[in-house]
Design brief:
The complex is a heterodimer of chains A (about 110) and B (about 120).
Chain A: E1 5-7, E2 10-13, E3 19-24, E4 31-38, E5 42-50, E6 53-57, E7 64-68, E8 74-78, E9 87-94, E10 104-105, E11 109-113
Parallel strand pairs in A: 2-11
Antiparallel strand pairs in A: 1-3, 3-8, 4-5, 4-9, 5-6, 7-8, 9-10, 9-11
Chain B: E1 4-7, E2 10-14, E3 19-25, E4 30-38, E5 45-51, E6 56-59, E7 62-67, E8 72-77, E9 86-94, E10 103-105, E11 109-114
Parallel strand pairs in B: 2-11
Antiparallel strand pairs in B: 1-3, 3-8, 4-5, 4-9, 6-7, 7-8, 9-10, 9-11
The chains are: A mainly beta (about 110), B mainly beta (about 120).
Chain lengths: ~110, ~120
């Protein structure tokens, strides 16, 4: 089975711009979660989607949004980029997102905001 | 305050030596604890998962222990190899929810194995 894929792998944007990141989960997985990883903060939960519905959301401003399509692929959007948004954005998928499910992470998208 | 604290922050060890990483948590009620390995430039990969009733779990040269009474876990790496150089992240899940949103992540321990 192919793993979780994320595109693009690297992205450079300037302040004020917006960006859309894409995640394709492992085939058959219905839960997709997004995380922001920075050196100082570690992994921080952004949101989780399950069957096209946002099931939970972390403590991030409304500039961060996402969606999930019927094929379980997910996109994350960040509007009005700030310097502090520079980070590795990780997507993870799991079959149902509960119990002893293992989350499988993608390689991440490295976003740099100048 | 972070509910999952890892120590040390970083560690340098010689190839072939053993090392132990620590994870202390306050998450309650406890469901399970995972150790992830994250190579530079890659996403984390699950090494072990332990529930309340499990106090030891091995995956090759990696052995995780859990003391649910003291809320402590350790990850022991035996006979380290250069490929063990990575960040090791402790992740604790609370019992009360099925959502990934309530996972608590440690900041990770950066391990560097030198020849």
């Amino acid at each position: 089975k192919a793993g979780v894929t994320q595109t693009p792998r690297y992205l450079i944007k300037t302040r004020g711009q917006q960006v859309t990141l894409s995640c394709s989960p492992i085939s058959g997985h219905r839960s997709v979660s997004w995380y922001q990883q920075t050196p100082g903060q570690g992994l921080q939960f952004l949101f989780e989607y399950f069957s096209e519905t946002q099931r939970n959301k972390g403590n991030f401003p409304g500039r961060f949004s996402g969606r999930q399509f019927s094929n379980s692929r997910s996109e994350m959007n960040v509007s009005t980029l700030e310097l502090g948004d520079s980070a590795l954005y990780l997507c993870a998928s799991s079959p149902e997102g509960s119990g002893r499910d293992t989350q499988y992470f993608g390689p991440g998208t490295r976003l740099t905001v100048l | 305050k972070n509910q999952v604290e890892q120590s040390p922050q970083s560690l340098i060890i010689l190839e072939g030596k053993n090392c132990t990483l620590q994870c202390n948590y306050t998450v309650s009620p406890f469901s399970n604890l995972r150790w992830y390995k994250q190579d530079t430039g890659r996403g984390p990969v699950s090494l072990t998962i332990m529930t309340f009733s499990e106090n030891t779990k091995s995956n090759g040269r990696y052995t995780a222990t859990l003391d649910a009474d003291t809320k402590q876990s350790s990850l022991h790496i035996t006979a380290s190899q250069l490929s063990d150089s990575a960040s090791y992240i402790c992740v604790v899940r609370a019992m009360t929810t099925d959502s990934w949103g309530k996972l608590q992540f440690g900041a990770g321990t950066q391990v560097v194995v030198t020849p």
